[in-house]
Amino acid sequence: MKKENASPKEMNPAGGSASNVEKKENSRLLRRLMLVGAAAALVFISIGGTIFYLSKTGKLQKVKSHLSSSSSSSRELGERSSSGKKGEFYISSKDEDSKSGGKIAVKKQPVSEKNTDDDEPFINPYALGEDFDVDDPDFTDPEDEIDPDDYDLKDFDPDDFDPEDFNDPDTEMPEKMPKDKGGKKGTGYSLPDGQGNYDLTEYTIILDPGHGGRDTGCVFPFNAPEYNECDFTLRIAKRIKSQLEARGATVHMTRTDNSWVSLYNRLAQTHLICLDIAEKEGKLPFSKARANELRTLLQTSIDINEDTVASGGMGIMVGSGVGDDLNDLFEMEYKLDKVLFLSVHLNSSESRTLHGNSIFYVTDESVIESERRQRRENSEFQRSDFPIRDEYYGRHGEDNELLACCLYDNIVGNIPEFETNATPVNADNYAVLREHGLTGCLIETAFLSDDNDRAMLQRDDTIDSIAVSVSDSVKMYFIQKGI
Ligand SMILES: [Zn+2]
Q1: 83 in a structural domain
Q2: Same structural domain, 354 and 414
């Protein structure tokens, strides 16, 4: 049978003299072999060059460390390394296991998605990114051990992760927390540890030291006073002022010495400060002429410096509800969200059973409920020259409550002895909180009638702690508000 289709080799199995066709075939085969060899050499040179570059730049150890403990292909590389120059280009999977405890080392860093393949251990995408620091940890240094306990993703929930959080310098701060109206210690409104280096430059605080002059406030002992509330409140407020100013805040005081300043004088001062701020910041909701008209009316209250209806000292603030002049000021002050009002007082309990810190604030409801009661019981409300207006709704009661919680938690957090057995935070009706539109609170620092509280209040370190706590509260309030 003619083997026409047989291969040349078969036709010349002994390798004897070949035909021209056979020579051409052999030549073609040789060229192919040379091409394959050249390609293989190129591949070999490329791989070798890459390995050399990586080893020189120190990146290879890191690349290998992740690969070797994560997949079968990387483990093959590790095994190959053990038969080559171990530790120079590759580290074996055994070596890697000894450093990472056999677990993939993942830094506690933000991740964009969770690995769902159990066979494919999760590799932190940031670990090999541009920001990756090859020196931390240094896998070539046996002394630089990785502690697997430092790396933990088991509690990580990708749904809780917001990449924007990591661009925020305040990222360690807690997110807005659910409110606990009890205002108890540790309810989440105290400034976290390690957040002491903050700045209050943007903010203005109006500090109101309670009482003064002919009004001593509460006293102790009741029958033969040795201690007057007005002295403590001035001392505490001055210390708070220093602390806030050290943080860069702008601070105004409604009194700076032991003189009598009526409540409506304090309120008129507050409105005047707010008019100045609003005008300076271009936030006046009315004309400058109207602002000056209001200034004149407010100055009257300051000049009269009395709290009775008959004296006229209550000025535009007299009466229940809110008149047109006061309403204009409220609207302006609601927009001054970086200004706070803080009144400083001491508490007193005739039975001497109560102790600790309490914070008071106003809401529409707390004011309206009080006004309804006073219309029945208070003779001032029954005077013919006392305006009875519609009940006013519009106060920022929730902001006031938030500030109250911040104050209580920070004060009691720093001074545990001031944890109260009275009500920690209370919505009520105080003139100095009711007659303006600023977020504000009245701080009943502690009970002058309580022996332990009184002893604490005479200590410089307590006054310092109160000042720091109030400053921290201000910061925490603005963190919570996001402003
Ligand atoms: Zn008081």
Answers
A1: no
A2: yes
Q: Classify residue 110: in a domain, yes or no.
A: no
**Ligand 1 centre distance from Cα of residue 259 (Å):** 15
Residue 71 lies in a domain: no
Instruction: Enumerate the β-bridge partners of residue 389.
Output: none
Q: What is the pLDDT of residues 440-471, one digit of tens each?
A: 999 999 999 999 999 999 999 999 999 999 99
What is the separation, in whole angstroms, between the first and last Cα of the chain? 99
CA 180 / ligand 1 centre spacing (Å): 26
- Tokens standing for residue 209: 């030291």
d(CA 460, CA 476): 24
Distance 208 CA to ligand 1 centre (A): 11
What pLDDT sits at residue 27? 54
Per-residue pLDDT tens for 98-137? Answer: 333 322 222 233 333 333 334 343 333 333 333 333 334 4
How far apart are the CA of 442 and the centre of ligand 1, in A? 9
Query: From the CA of 210, how far away is ligand 1's center (Å)?
Result: 5
Centroid of ligand 1 to alpha carbon of 87 (angstroms) = 75
**Average pLDDT, integer, range 40-60:** 48
pTM: 0.64
Q: Is residue 235 in some structural domain?
A: yes
Does one domain contain both 160 and 242? no
Strand-pair category, 439-447 with 358-361: antiparallel
Give pLDDT tens digits for 73-95: 332 222 222 222 222 222 223 23
Q: Which of 167, 199, 225 is the last residue of a domain?
A: 167
Report the pLDDT value the prediction gives residue 193, as an integer from 0 to 100.
73
Q: How many Å apart are CA 230 and CA 217, to the nearest integer?
A: 6
Q: Report how many domains make up the chain.
A: 2
The arithmetic mean of pLDDT across residues 311-324, rounded, is 97
Rounding to the nearest 10 degrees, give the CA dihedral for residues 198, 201, 203, 209: 90
Round to whole Å and give the CA distance between 436 and 329: 7
Domain coverage including residue 42: 18-57+123-167
Are 133 and 224 members of one domain?
A: no
**CA 443 to centroid of ligand 1, rounded, Å:** 9
Q: Let me know whether 143 and 241 are in one domain.
A: no
